[in-house]
């Protein structure tokens, strides 16, 4: 095993197998991955901060087996920050918190290509700071159909005085987020609200939308997965890489940019590569910043 | 002969043993519809529901029963049914020959064309003789666990086999006990004249199935223009956004 030692903020890291090609059909090594996360760090770190990370590790690359790891690996340097979570039956579990660059580089060195985090922070695990609509196309539908649904959602939410923000899932779908950032909001609220919205959407656009999880309902439709609004669920973090053929990023887009790209009628235009994600972020700043700061309140609830 | 034969057998009488292949002469091409759930157009399938418990009953829990009187059944198991099945055989056995017109059309069922199989010497001779003598061979055979009664005939130089109904399947006119109506010579003459005027060669193609044609037209039209269930809907329904908001507000107030 080849090893390289680096020092970040006074912390010494041992990086292994930097030359290993983890996206073999594209040609993207672990060194490339670390470089991507180093450059995107200023933008992704505020979104990872104090959230119980679920590692999705691809030790032999995206074409080989992967595994989820919720527990922070025990072979960790002593400076790795963790939080203690109470698991289902009161069992305690230590999770990794990615609060700085050295932590980010450390988990990426474990080939944790995808970073999944809950909608709440560890200090207040029952308080979601946003609500999400996970738009997932069934067989025969695509990301362009998701975009249609996203636009309707955006308009509908704005009429309820709720601003929403969109990112690509990095796979086939889109994620629409509504920042809340109020300590009074519970997952019960976000679940109730998103479920009603999903069901009303299904009723009004039966040819385009389903609010039901079962595969047979999802054919040629967009599934609005409202059930992601749960303290036990995680979403892929904004700016995380995805384990696909190419290093594609779950990337935020301005609404008018989504309109422009979707208008070209080509689903592949909505796949943002690592390099483009970095240049967009460096040019436009963090389009998801509102998720960190904007306070919004549900009407009626 | 184009197409795939559905069965092979031997025409057998006297010294004759003629290998033939059966081709069905009928195609069923009616417009078929699927049953879908109105709400989301998902395909529906059938299930056997217990009449008492109102629950679906799986295949392995189903048996066959013959109703002897209301609610009383004799249960037969698959092994018993198998015993009653006819012995499989490949012989189309000709019992007698009759004049073709003696076969009342009420008996006619399904028609098969017979293709000469390899070494079918005498196929042409048999077809020619049947036409010459205006005869039909009354025969029986077993095909797919069923015994058939049939008429072996020829048309052009092709042999054909028409499955006939068994006598107990045919309802006699007598059993209807129709009233006898007297008929005068004059009435008969008028009737015959009328028929003579309308006499034409048999041209079945003049008469199309208007209902099927209308159904096909309807479907063609829908497929071209309006959206139909089997096509993937690409366009949004023009629901007024204001109405959507209203519906949402009502629903939100309900759960609040």
- Cα-atom radius of gyration of chain B: 29 Å
Element-level helix/strand string of chain B:
EEEEHEEHEEEHHH
Name given to the CATH architecture of the largest domain in chain A: 2-Layer Sandwich
Instruction: Work out the strand percent of chain B.
Output: 25-35%
**Structural class determined from secondary elements of chain B:** alpha+beta
Strand elements of chain A, count:
16
Report the end-to-end length of chain A measured between terminal Cα atoms: 56 Å
The CATH topology of one domain in chain B turns out to be Ku70, Chain: A, Domain 2
Question: What's the mean pLDDT score of chain B?
Answer: 85
Q: How many helices of chain B in DSSP terms?
A: 5
Using the coordinates above, name the CATH class of one domain in chain B: Mainly Beta
Give the domain tally of chain A: 2
Following the backbone from N to C, one meets helices and strands of chain A in this order, namely: EEHEEEEHEEHEEHEHEEEEHEHH
**Uncertain ranges of chain A:** none
Assign an overall shape of chain A.
globular
Structural class of chain A: alpha+beta
Helix content of chain B: 10-25%
Q: How many strand segments of chain B? A: 9
Number of helices of chain A: 8
The whole-number mean of residue pLDDT values of chain A reads 92
Helix-strand layout with pairing:
The complex is a heterodimer of chains A (301) and B (256).
Chain A: E1 3-8, E2 11-16, H1 30-48, E3 54-57, E4 67-69, E5 82-86, E6 92-96, H2 101-109, E7 114-117, E8 130-137, H3 143-159, E9 165-168, E10 174-179, H4 187-204, E11 209-210, H5 215-218, E12 222-225, E13 235-236, E14 248-249, E15 252-253, H6 255-263, E16 272-273, H7 274-284, H8 290-293
Parallel strand pairs in A: 11-12
Antiparallel strand pairs in A: 1-2, 3-4, 3-7, 5-6, 7-13, 8-10, 8-12, 9-10, 9-15, 14-16
Chain B: E1 7-13, E2 16-24, E3 64-69, E4 72-76, H1 78-84, E5 91-99, E6 108-116, H2 123-133, E7 135-143, E8 146-155, E9 158-164, H3 185-197, H4 210-224, H5 241-255
């Amino acid at each position: 095993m080849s090893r390289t030692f680096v020092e970040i903020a006074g912390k010494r890291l041992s990086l292994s197998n930097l030359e290993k090609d983890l996206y073999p059909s594209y040609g993207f090594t672990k060194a490339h991955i670390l470089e991507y996360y180093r450059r995107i760090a200023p933008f992704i770190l505020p979104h990872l901060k104090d959230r119980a990370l679920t590692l999705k590790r691809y030790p032999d690359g995206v074409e080989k087996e992967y595994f989820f790891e919720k527990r922070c690996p025990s072979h960790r340097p002593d400076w790795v920050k963790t939080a203690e979570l109470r698991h289902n039956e009161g069992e305690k579990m230590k999770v990794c918190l990615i609060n700085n660059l050295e932590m980010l580089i450390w988990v990426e060195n474990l080939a944790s290509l995808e970073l999944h985090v809950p909608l709440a922070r560890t200090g207040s695990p029952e308080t979601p700071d946003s609500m999400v609509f996970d738009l997932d196309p069934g067989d025969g539908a695509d990301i362009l159909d998701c975009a249609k649904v996203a636009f309707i959602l955006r308009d509908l939410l704005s009429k309820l005085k709720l601003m929403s923000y969109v990112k690509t899932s990095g796979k086939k779908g889109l994620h629409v987020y509504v920042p809340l950032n109020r300590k009074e909001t519970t997952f019960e609220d976000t679940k109730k609200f998103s479920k009603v919205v999903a069901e009303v959407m299904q009723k009004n656009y039966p040819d385009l939308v389903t609010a039901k999880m079962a595969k047979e309902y999802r054919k040629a439709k967009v599934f609005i997965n409202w059930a992601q609004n749960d303290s036990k669920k995680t979403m892929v973090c904004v700016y995380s890489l995805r384990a696909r053929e190419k290093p594609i990023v779950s990337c935020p887009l301005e609404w008018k940019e989504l309109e422009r790209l979707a208008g070209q009628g080509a689903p592949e235009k909505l796949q943002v590569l690592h390099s483009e994600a970095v240049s967009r972020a460096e040019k436009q700043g963090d389009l998801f910043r509102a998720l960190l700061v904007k306070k919004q309140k549900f009407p009626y609830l | 002969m184009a197409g795939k034969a559905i069965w092979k057998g031997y025409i057998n009488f006297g010294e004759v043993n003629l290998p033939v292949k059966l081709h069905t002469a009928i195609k069923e091409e009616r417009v078929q519809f699927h049953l879908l759930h109105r709400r989301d157009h998902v395909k529906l399938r059938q299930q056997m529901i217990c009449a008492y418990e109102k629950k679906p009953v799986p295949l392995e829990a189903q048996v066959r029963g013959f109703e002897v009187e209301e609610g009383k059944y004799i249960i037969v198991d698959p092994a018993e049914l198998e015993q009653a099945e006819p012995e499989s055989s490949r012989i189309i056995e000709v019992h007698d020959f009759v004049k073709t017109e003696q076969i009342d059309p009420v008996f006619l069922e399904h028609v098969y064309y017979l293709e000469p199989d390899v070494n079918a010497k005498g196929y042409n001779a048999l077809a020619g003789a049947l036409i010459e003598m205006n005869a039909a061979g009354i025969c029986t055979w077993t095909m797919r666990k069923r015994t058939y009664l049939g008429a072996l005939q020829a048309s052009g130089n092709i042999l054909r086999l028409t499955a006939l109904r068994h006598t107990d399947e045919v309802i006699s006119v007598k059993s209807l006990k129709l009233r006898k109506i007297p008929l005068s010579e004059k009435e008969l003459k008028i009737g015959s004249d009328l028929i003579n005027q309308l006499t034409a060669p048999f041209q079945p193609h003049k008469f199309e199935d208007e209902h099927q044609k209308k159904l096909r037209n309807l479907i063609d039209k829908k497929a071209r223009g309006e959206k139909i269930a089997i096509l993937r809907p690409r366009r949004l329904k023009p629901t007024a956004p204001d109405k959507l908001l209203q519906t949402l507000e009502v629903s939100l107030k309900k759960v609040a």
